[in-house]
Design goal:
single chain, alpha/beta, Rossmann fold, GMP Synthetase, Chain A, domain 3, 7-stranded mixed sheet, 5-stranded parallel sheet, 18 helices, binds adenosine-5'-triphosphate, binds magnesium ion
């Protein structure tokens, strides 16, 4: 087995040699002339002159070696549908979809917005676009019309693909209707809309001349063969908008060759998945995790990928482990939010199924607190690998890398820098590197490795200004996250740079205080924000979800619990970090990707407008916060 330190050093000292070797993991129609072109910093081109195609690498390439292996397994607990597609069948479906799109005039460089629930056709549509050299932009199906409209106007698609309806938690979501509304709102609506009718929305009507029924078009192309369009490595494969946790979403533009290589390498070194094995990623195709590790990554690696439509707790909280057992899942990828949801359920559900096939469970998307990590690790007896990355990077920046070397993990840390990422922690004021255990802004020294964003769609200036203009001392890519590195080289993410609370001159990370509060045995989840305070600058305010609500049934019990939480913070961090107020709630406001909407929480706590709420998952969560704050203001 290799040694992480050597691999990492080599990737930073000899990036061209390192990546040229990784590039052998994918097929090239024409080999590249040059590994790296960094003549126009910070713009980076990988594998210059090489021709390749993502769909070919994800699908066609496996026809020779594993045609009858399952490529995609579809499970919907919402509709009860289950189906699977071998690589041969996947190839046929993708060709059909590509033929339909081609008939409508979709070709190289054209944008196609995909607004779909988790159904196989969503993956077919993505792969079909890749096959044609068209640029897909998948918009998360949970977004409402207004969010969809702004993305349409930014990406300017000629065509959209959608479904009649989706289902979430047993409730139907009228996709087609939402699309109609979005097209009305948008300044540049697409000419055509291809609709996959699932039969869930009986009242759906098609607009003549614009709306096309996929099933009937597919019937005309059952034996279609569409040759992959070979793209130069740096030509765009897709646009994906960031989650919008901190403001207006940015259209991350991804290249083709660099992304293919980065994913293939990550499947081997980070996810340690072998061709022929099965991967289950519980995310959604609307997020970067879905792009990289439901669709492209596992397929490029010749693995079976599981596509799941449903929540983690229906029909019961054992559903994911049932899937792991039945489909012999070897690699699983989920989010801390989902695990916290399961943590609120009776523990027995974790022991109903044999999950011994599972080697590693990867979690990403937000901080993984130690109690949650320990809980799931102990319960499943699998190792938990915290992954830190961003929509922008497309694959992990910090992670355990069991495919290179098994290393001891520290709870609360996503581990070490991933090969290719030259990381530094810079002092936000001076721009100098901070010392061991000192807090700094996590930055990447460019050139960014393959697979990372090549620019912001249609806005090179925004790309440079947003990401590369934060330090005068040197040109670096800012992650906008705080982190520390300990004496053993482990990194710890402390939260976003705009999430710092300044209490009487002490700068506290929201994450540190949240970790401290999570140490209380009866707290399932917590959000901490800084609230304006005449005296101290800012005061700490906590919103905590209690595990066992019967313990806060009376006002006395509530106030006892609040005191306990405060005492926990005193003990873990000191009185300076003690919340001025602890609100006990049953739910926190989150985006549909499971990220805390901290800016809205803070705004409400300060009596301001909560801002753009189009990404909010459940409006009831904010109502609770409003009520709690109103009550607090009365008693203050
Ligand atoms: P926007 O950039 O539009 O505000 P966003 O940052 O939430 O949205 P993503 O790209 O989906 O959109 O999220 C990346 C961010 O999520 C990281 O910058 C980091 O703040 C957080 N994050 C992701 N993984 C981890 C992790 N393992 N530990 C801690 N934080 C994480
Ligand atoms: Mg971000």
């Amino acid at each position: 087995m290799a040694n992480y330190q050597d691999v990492y050093r080599n990737s930073i000292d000899n990036p061209e040699a390192f990546w040229a070797e990784q590039a052998n993991l994918v097929d090239w129609h024409k080999p590249f002339d040059k590994v790296l072109d960094y003549s126009r910093p910070p713009f980076t081109k990988w594998f210059v002159g090489g021709l390749t195609n993502l769909c070919h690498n994800a699908v066609d390439r496996h026809l020779a070696t594993r045609p009858e292996q399952k490529a995609l397994v579809y499970i919907s607990v919402e509709t009860g549908a289950e189906s699977s597609y071998t690589f041969r069948e996947l190839h046929a479906e993708v060709n059909r979809f590509a033929a339909v799109l081609r008939d409508q005039g979709v070709g190289k460089g054209d944008r196609v917005i995909i607004y779909m629930p988790m159904i196989p056709e969503a993956a077919f549509a993505m792969l079909a676009c890749a096959r044609l050299g068209a640029v897909h932009s998948v918009v998360f199906g949970g977004f409402a019309s207004a969010s969809l409209a702004t993305r349409i106007d930014d990406a300017r698609p000629g065509l959209m693909v959608t479904a009649g309806a989706g289902m979430r938690g047993g409730k139907s979501i009228p996709y087609k209707h939402l699309v109609d509304e979005a097209l009305r709102l948008s300044a540049h609506p697409p000419q055509k809309v291809v609709i996959v009718n699932r039969g869930l929305d009986k009242g759906m009507s098609l607009t003549a001349g614009r709306d096309l029924d996929y099933a009937s078009l597919r019937d005309q192309h059952m034996d279609a063969r569409v040759d992959p369009v070979w793209l130069e490595s740096s030509e765009p494969s897709y646009i994906l908008y960031t989650s919008g946790t901190t403001g207006k979403p940015k259209g991350v533009q991804r290249d083709t060759g660099g992304y293919a290589v980065a994913l293939a390498a990550s499947m081997r070194h980070i996810y340690a998945g072998r061709p022929g094995e099965t991967m289950f990623t519980t995310s959604d195709i609307g997020w970067v995790v879905g792009h990289s590790y439901i669709v492209y990554g596992p397929l490029i690696n010749g693995m079976t990928t599981i596509m799941y439509e449903g929540l983690p707790i229906r029909p019961d909280p054992a559903i994911w482990w049932k899937i792991v057992e039945e489909h012999k899942v070897n690699v699983m990828f989920s989010s801390p939010t989902a695990i916290r949801v399961l943590k609120k359920q009776p523990a027995e559900y974790l022991h109903k199924h044999d999950v011994s096939c599972l080697r590693n469970l990867y979690l990403a998307g937000e901080p993984l607190d130690e109690p949650t990590a320990r809980w799931i690790s102990d319960a499943l007896k699998v190792s938990i690998i915290d992954n830190y990355w961003q929509t922008e990077t497309g694959w992990p920046i910090l992670s355990g890398m069991p495919g290179i070397e098994e290393q001891p993990r520290k709870f609360g840390s996503p581990g070490f820098p991933v090969y290719g990422f030259n990381l530094k922690l810079l002092h936000e004021g001076t721009g100098r590197e901070v010392g061991v255990n000192e807090k700094g802004v996590l930055v990447v020294v460019p050139p960014l490795p393959p697979g990372c964003l090549s620019t912001v769609w249609g806005d090179d200036k925004r790309f440079v200004n947003t990401y590369f203009s934060n330090f005068e001392t040197e040109l670096v890519y800012s992650t906008f996250d705080w982190a520390t590195r300990d004496e053993d080289g482990y990194y710890f993410i402390l939260g976003r740079t705009d999430d710092v609370i300044n209490v009487a001159g002490h700068r506290l990370g929201t994450r540190e205080i949240e970790e401290a509060i999570s140490a209380h045995p009866n707290i399932a989840e917590v959000a901490v924000v800084g609230v304006q305070d005449g005296l101290k600058g800012q005061a700490v305010m906590a919103f905590a979800v209690v595990k066992d609500a019967s313990r806060i049934a009376t006002p006395e019990a509530i106030s006892r619990m609040e005191k306990e939480v405060m005492a926990t913070v005193d003990k873990e961090l000191g009185a300076i970090a003690r919340p001025a107020k602890v609100h006990l709630v049953t739910m926190l406001p989150k985006t549909r990707s499971g990220k805390l909407l901290r800016r809205s929480l803070q705004a409400l706590a300060e009596g301001r407008d909560p801002g753009d709420l189009t990404t909010l998952d459940d409006p009831a969560s904010l109502d609770q916060i409003r009520a709690a704050i109103a009550q607090w203001q009365e008693t203050k």
